[in-house]
Amino acid sequence: MESTRLLRRSSQDRMIAGVMGGTAQYFGLDPNLLRIVYVLGSIISAAFPGILVYLLLWLVIPNDQ
To answer: What is the CA radius of gyration of the chain?
Structure first.
């Protein structure tokens, strides 16, 4: 039987809203590494509005229950 993976915000592995923790679980990555890459990408790229994207993901991705 094939299980369906769903993108959800993590309730256990969260720093702010669980967006990066849930994304890391979905893709099978280390959450801290994903957080570091996201913050560095937000700082380095002026065209990448990291805070706005994070807030949008916070609103769009449902919380795991």
So the answer is: 12
- Range of 50's domain? 19-60
The number of folded domains in the chain is 1
Strand-pair partners of 9: 63
Taking the model in full, what pTM does it have? 0.81
> Is 25 a member of any domain?
yes
Is 43 domain-assigned?
Answer: yes
Q: Cα–Cα distance between 37 and 61 in angstroms, integer?
A: 20
- List Cβ neighbours of 8 (8 Å cut-off, separation of 6 or more): 22, 25, 26, 61, 62, 63, 64
**What pLDDT shows up at residue 11?**
87
Tokens of 48: 């990448």
